[in-house]
Write a structure and sequence with these properties.
It contains eleven helices and two strands, in the order ααββααααααααα. The chain is mostly helical. It has one domain (9-288). The longest helix has 50 residues, at 54-103. It has helices at 9-12, 21-40, 54-103, 110-132, 137-141, 146-152, 158-174, 180-206, 211-236, 240-261, 274-288; strands spanning 44-45, 48-49.
Length: 306
């Protein structure tokens, strides 16, 4: 994800990176060619004049705008829910780490506390890789020992296995000490919060916006843009390509943005900054444990005009 500080209106006119313009240039070139053809043929196709004017496009454009607004709202709802889920992951991870450090028996070895913290961090990285369908092995090796890595071999739900390992470890370390049941309940509450966030993220990944909506919007936008030059050519003449490309840019870009935002865990510029968010949770856990912090992954990048 690209996050930038607020800039003035003039700089915003020339933003390139993250504007989706670079991904829709072929479509805009195609619309420019269609518009130029309409001007060159005076709105005729195979010698027959297409009887279109601006009136139907006004009515049709209003309906299309409402449909685009619905699609963008649905996409942003998914993005917003994903951000809330990862915010809950941060809160639950900090709370669980603090409770682990304060409530587990004082005689527990520092190596065991380190192992618990590392397992929690590994869970966050495993979740990120699961959502992106990438290999988590390299990140997991940084936090898990050979025994834990071996136990994860062949597991289809690595994050769930790591949460189960945390719960089992807490139960073992508590044993039958005084107040163990209360402490287990407190720790288990945070593990349940992590499990809820995990399930919510998996639900977003496994339940995309129905494909029929995407197909209908895609076809409607392109049909509107292709026919538009033939409805404007009589009134705008040589300005038709300029107007049609600009209108096409607005509609096609909105569709492209909606598609990116609807997949909040992807690698698109407008998806969530999972790398930075994961590193932020890692740093929070390590700081609570008084351990050395890795370099911060920054999601803020300067404007790029080329």
């Amino acid at each position: 994800m690209i996050v930038r500080p607020r800039q003035n209106w003039f700089l915003m006119l020339f933003v390139w990176n993250g504007s989706v313009l670079q991904t829709i240039i072929p479509q805009l070139v195609f619309m420019g060619a269609v518009s130029s053809l309409a001007v060159f043929t005076h709105g005729k196709v195979f010698g027959e004049k297409i009887p279109l004017n601006t009136a139907p496009f006004t009515l049709f454009g209003l309906a299309l705008a409402i449909f685009l607004a619905f699609r963008n709202n649905a996409s942003y709802d998914r993005f917003n829910e994903a951000r809330h889920l990862w915010g809950n992951l941060l809160i639950a991870s900090r709370s669980l780490t603090s409770q682990m450090l304060c409530y587990l028996p004082e005689h527990l070895a520092a190596a065991d506390r380190t192992r618990l913290a590392n397992t929690l961090i590994a869970f966050i990285y495993a979740l990120k890789h699961r959502l992106r369908a990438t290999d988590p092995a390299e990140d997991l090796r940084r936090f898990l020992g050979p025994e834990q890595m071996a136990a994860l071999q062949g597991k289809s739900y690595t994050p769930t296995a790591l949460l189960n390992d945390l719960r089992r470890s807490f139960a073992r370390y508590q044993g039958q000490a005084a107040g163990a049941d209360t402490t287990r309940w407190i720790l288990d509450t945070q593990i349940n919060e992590l499990g809820k966030a995990l399930g919510g993220c998996e639900r977003l990944v496994s339940t995309p916006i129905p494909f029929a909506y995407n197909v209908l919007l895609h076809r409607t936008v392109y049909a509107y843009c292709v026919l538009l030059p033939f409805g404007l050519v009589d009134s705008t003449e040589f300005f038709t390509p300029l107007l049609c490309v600009f209108i096409s840019y607005t509609l096609i870009a909105l569709e492209a943005i909606a598609s990116e935002v609807a997949e909040p865990f992807g690698l698109a510029p407008n998806a969530l900054a999972l790398d930075a968010m994961t590193r932020n949770i890692e740093r929070s856990i390590l700081e609570l444990c008084d351990r050395e912090l890795p370099a911060e992954t920054v999601a803020v990048r300067p404007y790029q005009f080329t």
